[in-house]
Design brief:
The chain is α+β, with helices and mostly antiparallel strands and 451 residues long. Helices cover 65% and strands 10% of the residues. Strand 2 and strand 3 form a beta hairpin. The longest helix is centred in the middle third of the chain and has 75 residues. It is elongated, with a radius of gyration of 33 Å. The chain starts with a helix and ends in a 7-residue tail after the last strand.
Length: 451
């Protein structure tokens, strides 16, 4: 019985504690179930209680490969089930996080073994004498704490940041679990095989070839765990990009619908206002107030001409907003140069671009409510340039300004602009100079179709 509790304390409980620490890292941002804290407390009691019969199983079958694999799989399965009970995320999301937690635990342990086995080969620890067990634990726990922090900084933080609301690719998840499963199998084979070759204590060998084999196995296992993290990052990033593309497609469809509605509305307003202005001209001699009324109506009877029907409608609509808010929007646009961009994309691109500028200047001082918009061609390139004043400071992340709207991270509008630009082989750059915000999009001029 004492052997069971010794194994429980030194192997099972220690493994569970490490695994749960990494599970906490990966699931920290996950949506919690109702009654989370009492469920968590019961889960911790349950998981460590389950470890006692598992420790008995370990004493009986832990010296065999399949026995050792079964021990860790049983504990892993129990952690997954209890994590699903505590969090209201989808099962595959919980499985994904727990799998990565297992990979993180195994990575830290194998990195420690790399250093420890090398130290044993060099006889560095022979002077520890009767305090060997104490010093070993102190070194191991210190190493674990430092390595866990590094794993969080390099892997966990990036994955969990994009994991919220992400619909995981089940095929990639299956590959990730498969790679981890192979790693667990190889680790169990190594542990059982090398335990019979140790002399005096664990991971100490009297032949250099054993040391080389053990170190190779440790390094291979660590590399496999890193591969698991790379696959996980690819899964999350790919799904996030897919979601952004779907959102962009929806935005473009909405832009096309808005374009049709706006065009019909502006045409109708222009027809009515033109008729009203004609009639007011006939009555101009009868009242001095009619001239001022004519000037007020005239803004609705004007169009911006760019050579692109899409931009004509969009910028005419935005000019009405500018007139109402006393914003000076200067447009020098050769819209014919942008004929290679599909109508929905073009409307969405300039709609987001102008809306961002209007948002920045509408609350500024009157003399700073200025927007300059230019589209021109030069040296085989097509340039879209936009400048406006802005107040305060802008923070940049991944080359894009972080939105000033609370809680939204990157503005989706700016991401949409970059996605559309890249769709047509262009590139977006954003910069600030003092209180001036500058946006530039560069396209290579498309070749004219051959006759």
């Amino acid at each position: 019985m004492s052997e069971i509790f010794r194994l429980y304390g030194m192997v099972i409980a220690e493994f569970l504690a490490e695994l749960l620490i990494f599970c906490g890292m990966f699931l920290f941002r996950a949506e919690r179930a109702r009654g989370f804290w009492w469920k968590l407390a019961l889960s911790l009691v349950a998981i460590f209680a389950i470890g006692i019969p598992v420790a008995w199983f370990y004493t009986a079958f832990g010296e065999t490969v399949w026995g050792r694999i079964l021990v860790y799989l049983l504990l892993f399965a129990a952690v997954i089930l209890l994590a699903k009970w505590c969090f209201s995320e989808k099962f595959f999301t919980v499985l994904f996080c727990c799998t990565l937690a297992y990979a993180a635990q195994n990575l830290v342990y194998k990195l420690f073994l790399l250093l420890w086995t090398g130290g044993e080969a060099l006889r560095i620890f022979d002077t520890w004498g009767t305090n060997f067990a104490l010093y070993y634990r102190l070194v191991y726990y210190s190493f674990f704490a430092a390595a866990a922090c590094l794993v969080y900084l390099f892997f966990v933080r990036g994955i969990t940041k994009e994991l919220q609301g992400c619909d995981l690719d089940h095929r990639m998840l299956a590959i990730t679990v498969f790679v981890l499963g192979i790693t667990i199998l190889l680790c169990s084979l190594e542990d059982v095989f090398f335990s019979g070759l140790c002399v005096e204590r664990e991971n100490r060998f009297d032949r250099p070839e054993y040391v080389a084999l053990r170190e190779t196995g440790n390094a291979f296992s660590a590399v496999c765990c890193v591969i698991v993290f790379l696959l996980a990052s690819k899964t999350v990033v790919a799904r996030e990009l897919g979601r952004e593309v779907e959102e962009l497609k929806y935005a473009i469809l909405q832009s096309e619908r808005q374009y049709r509605i706006t065009k019909e509305t502006i045409d109708l307003i222009n027809i009515k206002c033109h008729d009203i202005r004609y009639r007011l001209g006939m009555l101009a001699e009868q009242g001095s107030g009619l001239e001022e009324l004519k000037r007020s109506i005239a803004i609705y009877d004007s169009r911006i001409s760019t050579g692109s029907p899409i931009l004509d409608v969009l910028l005419t609509e935005k000019s009405l907003f500018c007139e109402q808010n006393k914003i000076n929007m200067s447009c020098m646009i050769d819209g014919s140069k942008l004929s290679f961009i599909e109508e929905g994309d073009l409307y969405c691109l300039f709609g987001n671009l102008v809306d961002n500028a209007l948002e920045a200047v509408k609350g500024a001082e009157p003399d700073r409510r200025v927007i300059d918009l230019v589209v021109k061609s030069k040296d085989g390139l097509i340039l879209i340039q936009e400048e406006n004043y802005f107040a305060g400071a802008l923070n940049f992340e991944d080359g894009l300004p972080v939105t000033t709207k609370e809680g939204t991270g990157h503005g989706f509008g700016m991401r949409s602009i970059r996605l559309i630009a890249r769709k047509y082989g262009g590139e977006l750059s954003v910069s600030t100079h003092g209180e001036i915000f500058s946006l530039n999009i560069i396209f290579a001029r498309p070749e004219a179709p051959k006759a």
